[in-house]
Model the fold of this input.
Amino acid sequence: MHQEILKHVTSKIELSNEEQREFVGILSEKHVSKKEFLIEPGQSVDCEYYVVEGCLKAYYLDQDGNMHIIQFAVEDWWISDFEAFFGNIPAQLFVEAIEDSVLLGIHRDTLETLYHRIPKFERFFRMKTTNAFVALRSRILSSLQKNNKERYLEFCITYPEIEKRIPNYHIANYLGIKPESLSRLRKELFELNII
Done:
């Protein structure tokens, strides 16, 4: 199980065998069953999680009870309520398993200690945070500049492994499209042999 996260980390930074052992030694394993919550609003969020196996979604419920999906996470991705994690404030998001999932968690305090002991980890997590910021900005611009078809095709190209695993109504929610509209769009694209 630790081989996946070590491959993930060492694709960005070099680690000695001793540094690898120290890193995996601070990770905690967590199993979350399908439809189980990893995080709920109001909770303290002390960990961010690397997905070893499975699929999760992070979402917000508005005052009318409508779901707004912020993020999906599959293998080799990170998930948490990052605002709560970094800001040390109560969670605002639900993080729920779409599939049975296996995660590796890293505690905020342990992460700070790791930065001091092995400074190159600060670089690694800075790169991950920067990539997440750029992806979020791209998503916002896409929602402002592109029509439903363009946004759905972009989603399929960018996240092919997710598109095949997640119910269409979740994808529609993430893209801000009505499920019926996405169904019509998918049918049209399928008939044109585009998907």
